[in-house]
């Protein structure tokens, strides 16, 4: 704890040119008093006494406001004033969420002896996220004499070099950035060492000076004079055995004895929701927040701000210079406003410290410096590579950049040089090596490309390249390896967006645009970006002159996208019918299959299972023409689903068993929909429902658990949501399982915000049904299919729509429950005779369907209202006795309790 009494030492404390005198409560800089308020002085005194250690905020507030309770905002105001008073060096460093420290060495009067070093090194601000790197650098110099820090502009090479130099006993820090003539490198070094330059080659004098001790020579910003500096470094190291050199450059010196240490950007949080506390575990966030607090005393990172701050850090690639410049703009624009304007506004990232070199005051200036050092071929390739939005291979770089004026070999050489000069980041995933432009570099290079006459040809090459990537993704598709496919091919979605934007620009090839929209369906569906894809499909279908084949494929994709993202909608049957007409005209069997399959699914969503069964049977001649066993199996799944929904459960289970016995069900289906619903899980949904209805409640739950495990393992969002909504939640309700709430939450979490509107609505319906069973109001549900499910979850939720459809024969599976629900309503109204007649009818119908679970419910209701009927009691007892499983479920427990 910090002392709060007046017994503290009176000796002066010295740091970064300042002298602090506790007894006189004065701070001097070069014998000139620094005006500080009383509380600012107490805070500075506490930080100086800590000698670089972090002082918690609570202790600082106790020191400055002894005996008082104050808000943290008061401390931030005092810190901001203190930083301003101490000058531009930013001596007060903050550790987000913890406290503050003095970012410089503190000496007492007895040990305040001068050391020859870079004056800026003493006052270097806190280096967030560089602790391991500094330790590594220290270890390197135990074995190496020449280390080069390499990295892109703005990554913090100079700051790291200064911090390392600050710990050395004898240091000479030489900034070569202003050197216009490489031949003057030795003279510049001599001047920095305080040596007179008496000849055109002062190297011998430099050697004599450095040979006398253990010197650390820091050569900063070598990239524009790299060849000369490399030769000078080799010469000095050979002549001075105790000399060590630390160089900073955007590319290696490539000289003898060099050890290259690449400086990476600061780690930023991945995409997704996170709290402020979680975000502050990442150094990029720590730096952004620290600098924002320094620039704006009122800034605090909240949980609501954390995802925006994380996105900002990712878009700035974790570059410290960009983060510091962004932090200075937060007060003016706010976090969201700043993030929204960064897509092409390099001018926003300006306003660095006035004491910094001009190229360190804006990102654009830093990039201008790098660009000026490139050869003409390297500039051409850098500009061309700006069309890529994400990682790309060397082959892709050649495909886009090479042309009449630039050979493939020249492109490959340029890519190598751009990587060496830190303008391209290298990424390795397993055996695959890719390159990537940092976002700020990409924006800069894109501006250069836009001003070039080569821009249209580069964009066209990129679009053709993207078409090839999509073709490869479609060829590789396998639903059994969904996650592996997504990891390899999902990353190209930003390239697809860029290619589509260019294809739809004025004067481009209409057919190429339509083909690109149609061909990219698998990516949009598997990444669940359906709302965005619907927009592209609508634009594609509006193109005049697109081929019938492209329009056919776009109609199919649009119908599937709309049904998943928006549910029942007039566009769905319209688009499937349009697809079918085009497919029949072109004799395209695959799209005939897709269209009729889709019409069957749309009828099933409307809960018109008789119509859906008709469409499923209509597929028979199409299946015969395909000659595909896979298509035949998918048709049988449709038949199984519709027969189950019409109340023919034994037949449905036979079809399920037949389909699941086929090994080819695991492979990709050439005749399946764009949704790529996993066929095994889809069959298990039907199986679980039919098993429960036929009285096998425990096996039903086991099948549900197996389907959920499989869906989670393949990481297919459509499949998992389908299993949860169509089987897991209903079966848990029917059985009375306690984990139904967990399953509902899982469905909601999976579907909300992912364009899975249909499944999101199911989650809301199930949640409302659970609240109703706990005493809440009835659910407000209008979807007919959901009304059927709710009637079986709780007979009190029986709707007139379900009753009328059961009577019309469009649905059958819930008809016994519809009769029982009518009976309960009649009993509540006092018409016991009519009620019992409904219960008996429900029991008979359930027996006809083989729905033992619903027959048990009907018999239980009948005995509840005719408790003295021995025949009814005996029948119910027999039903309970015949059960081989499910004895702990809600319905069985109720029947046993009634019999007892």
UniProtKB/TrEMBL annotation:
Domain of life of the organism encoding this protein: Bacteria
This protein's UniProt keywords: DNA-binding
Gene3D superfamilies per the UniProt record, alphabetical: P-loop containing nucleotide triphosphate hydrolases, Winged helix-like DNA-binding domain superfamily/Winged helix DNA-binding domain
GO MF term set: DNA binding
DNA-binding region: 10-104
Classification via PROSITE patterns: OMPR_PHOB
GO aspect biological process, one term: phosphorelay signal transduction system
Domain named OmpR/PhoB-type: residues: 10-104
Keyword DNA-binding: yes
The name this protein goes by in its record: OmpR/PhoB-type domain-containing protein
Native organism: Phenylobacterium deserti
């Amino acid at each position: 704890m910090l002392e709060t009494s007046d017994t503290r030492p009176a000796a002066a404390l010295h740091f970064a040119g300042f002298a602090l005198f506790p007894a006189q409560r004065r701070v001097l800089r070069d014998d000139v008093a620094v005006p500080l308020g009383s509380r600012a002085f107490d805070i500075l005194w506490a930080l100086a006494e800590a000698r670089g250690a972090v002082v918690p905020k609570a202790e600082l507030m106790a020191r400055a406001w002894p005996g008082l309770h104050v808000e943290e905002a008061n401390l931030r105001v005092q810190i901001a004033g203190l930083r301003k008073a101490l000058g531009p060096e930013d001596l007060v460093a903050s550790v987000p969420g913890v406290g503050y420290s003095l970012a410089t060495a503190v000496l007492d009067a007895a040990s305040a002896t001068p050391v020859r070093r870079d004056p800026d090194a003493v006052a270097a601000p806190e280096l967030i996220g560089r602790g391991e790197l500094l330790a590594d650098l220290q270890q390197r110099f135990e074995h190496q004499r020449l280390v080069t820090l390499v990295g892109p502009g703005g990554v913090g090479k100079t700051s790291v070099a200064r911090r390392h130099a600050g710990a050395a006993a004898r240091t000479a820090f030489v900034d070569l950035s202003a050197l216009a003539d490489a031949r003057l490198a030795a003279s510049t070094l001599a001047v920095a060492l305080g040596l007179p330059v008496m000849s055109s080659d002062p190297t011998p004098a430099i050697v004599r000076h450095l040979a006398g001790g253990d010197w650390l020579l820091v050569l900063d910003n070598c990239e524009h004079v790299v060849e000369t500096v490399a030769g000078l470094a080799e010469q000095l190291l050979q002549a001075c055995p105790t000399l060590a050199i630390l160089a900073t450059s955007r590319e290696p010196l490539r000289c003898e004895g060099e050890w290259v240490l690449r400086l990476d950007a600061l780690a930023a949080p991945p995409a997704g929701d996170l709290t402020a506390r979680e975000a502050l575990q990442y150094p990029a966030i720590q730096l952004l927040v620290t600098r924002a607090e320094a620039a704006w005393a009122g800034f605090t990172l909240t949980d609501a701000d954390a995802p925006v701050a994380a996105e900002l850090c990712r878009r700035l690639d974790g570059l410290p210079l960009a983060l510091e410049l962004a932090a200075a703009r937060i007060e003016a624009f706010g976090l969201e406003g700043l993030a929204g304007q960064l897509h092409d506004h390099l001018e926003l990232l300006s306003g660095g410290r006035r004491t910094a070199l001009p190229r360190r005051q804006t990102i654009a200036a830093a990039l201008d410096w790098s660009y000026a050092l490139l050869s003409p071929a390297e500039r051409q390739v850098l500009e061309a590579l700006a069309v890529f939005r994400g990682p790309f291979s060397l082959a892709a770089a050649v495909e886009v950049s090479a042309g009449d004026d630039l050979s493939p070999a020249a492109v490959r050489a340029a890519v190598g040089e751009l990587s060496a000069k830190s303008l391209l980041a290298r990424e390795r995933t397993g055996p695959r090596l890719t390159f990537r432009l940092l976002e700020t570099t990409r924006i800069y290079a894109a501006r250069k490309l836009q001003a070039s006459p080569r821009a249209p040809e580069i964009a066209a090459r990129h679009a053709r390249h993207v078409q090839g990537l999509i073709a490869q993704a479609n060829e590789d598709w396998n639903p059994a390896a969904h996650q592996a496919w997504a990891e390899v091919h999902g990353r190209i979605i930003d390239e697809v967006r860029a290619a589509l934007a260019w294809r739809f620009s004025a004067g481009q090839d209409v057919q190429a645009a339509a083909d690109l929209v149609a061909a990219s369906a698998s990516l949009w569906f598997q990444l669940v970006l359906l709302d965005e894809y619907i927009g592209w499909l609508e634009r594609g279908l509006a193109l005049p002159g697109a081929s019938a084949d492209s329009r056919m494929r776009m109609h199919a994709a649009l119908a599937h996208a709309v049904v998943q993202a928006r549910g029942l909608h007039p566009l769905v049957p319209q688009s499937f019918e349009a697809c079918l007409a085009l497919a029949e005209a072109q004799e395209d069997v695959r799209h005939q299959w897709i269209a009729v399959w889709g019409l069957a699914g749309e009828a099933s969503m409307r809960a018109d299972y008789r119509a859906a069964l008709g469409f499923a049977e209509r597929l028979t001649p199409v299946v015969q023409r395909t000659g595909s066993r896979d298509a035949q199996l998918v048709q049988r799944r449709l038949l199984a689903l519709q027969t189950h929904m019409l109340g023919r459960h034994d037949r449905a289970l036979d079809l399920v068993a037949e389909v699941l016995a086929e090994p080819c069900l695991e492979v990709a289906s050439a005749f399946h929909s764009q949704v790529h619903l996993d066929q095994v899980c889809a069959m298990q949904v039907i199986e679980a429902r039919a098993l429960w209805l036929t009285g096998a409640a425990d096996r039903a739950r086991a099948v549900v658990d197996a389907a959920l495990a499989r869906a989670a393992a393949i990481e297919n969002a459509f499949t998992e949501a389908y299993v949860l909504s169509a089987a897991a939640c209903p079966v848990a309700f029917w059985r009375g399982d306690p984990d139904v709430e967990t399953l509902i939450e899982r469905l909601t979490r999976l579907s909300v915000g992912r364009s899975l509107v249909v499944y999101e609505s199911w989650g809301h319906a199930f949640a409302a049904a659970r609240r109703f069973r706990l005493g809440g109001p009835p659910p407000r549900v209008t979807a007919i299919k959901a009304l059927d499910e709710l009637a079986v979850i709780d007979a009190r939720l029986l709707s007139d729509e379900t009753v009328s459809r059961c009577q019309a024969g469009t649905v059958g599976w819930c008809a016994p429950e519809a009769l029982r629900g009518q009976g309960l309503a009649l009993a509540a109204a006092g018409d016991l005779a009519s009620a019992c007649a409904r219960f008996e009818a429900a029991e008979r119908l359930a027996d006809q369907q083989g729905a033992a679970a619903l027959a048990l419910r009907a018999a239980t209701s009948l005995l509840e209202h005719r408790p003295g009927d021995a025949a009814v009691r005996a029948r119910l007892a027999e039903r309970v006795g015949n059960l081989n499983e499910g004895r702990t479920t809600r319905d069985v427990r109720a029947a046993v309790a009634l019999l007892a």
